[in-house]
Design goal:
Blueprint: H1 6-16, E1 25-29, H2 34-45, E2 49-51, E3 55-59, E4 62-70, E5 77-78, H3 80-86, H4 88-110, E6 122-126, H5 134-144, E7 150-159, H6 160-167, E8 172-179, H7 198-208
Parallel strand pairs: 1-2, 1-6, 6-7, 7-8
Antiparallel strand pairs: 3-4, 4-5
């Protein structure tokens, strides 16, 4: 499966989620890339668009290799075998820096606007793809703190074993493709995987929620 861009991937997911159009739904996108897909789903379902803001914690010798991920209020989701070698003090310092960055991003994207109340409603969590799954798992654990009636994870491409793990954590996982031969990077499944900047995130949120 090769998507032309995030907009096309979002439209494909929206078709698969059409049975949720009449429900009390809020779409939660993971910025930045997930916001483009979330916008397509929110528009198709006539639902509001909100954010779950996450931050990966990279290995000190290789920042691109995530050893943990956390969202705004939930506990960090970590690769425990890596943590044993890195130590408690290092993790506490990195968690503090990550939460500061999450707070900065929320203020940047939505200002003083409060998160929408999801209690008793259906939450659809959207990203542009999943590799290790740490970020999505952190998002799921964050969402559970807000007591939705149902959690649906929507992603265009996901490793098959990761999809099984997620299915054990939420009510439904919706994907265009779950592959047993993952190419190693989400961007490999897109013709255009241009980085999304903060201004575009703000523009999309304003447009969808006007």
């Amino acid at each position: 499966m090769l998507f032309k861009n995030r907009t096309e991937a979002g439209k494909k997911l929206a078709e698969l989620l059409s049975d949720h159009a009449s429900e009390d739904v809020i779409v939660y996108a993971l910025p930045r890339g997930g916001v483009i897909l979330g916008a397509e789903i929110a528009k198709a379902l006539h639902a509001p668009l909100d954010l779950i803001i996450t931050k990966k914690i990279g290995h000190p010798s290789n920042p691109e290799y995530a050893v943990c991920a956390l969202a705004e209020d939930g506990a960090p989701i970590c690769n425990q075998s890596e943590l044993e070698m890195l130590g408690h003090q290092w993790l506490e310092e990195e968690k503090h820096k990550a939460r500061e960055e999450i707070q900065r991003r929320r203020e940047e994207y939505v200002g003083n606007t409060t998160q929408k109340d999801i209690k008793g409603k259906t939450a659809i969590i959207v990203d542009d793809g999943i590799a290790t799954g740490l970020t999505m798992i952190a998002s799921i654990e964050e969402m559970k703190l807000h007591e939705p009636k149902e959690i649906v994870v929507a992603i265009p491409i996901v490793p098959y074993l990761t999809s099984l793990k997620l299915e054990g954590m939420v009510d439904k996982v919706v994907y265009v493709e779950a592959t047993s031969d993952f190419l190693g990077a989400v961007g490999a499944y897109y013709e255009d995987f241009t980085q999304v900047d903060d201004d575009e995130v703000k523009r999309i949120l304003k447009e969808v929620n006007k």
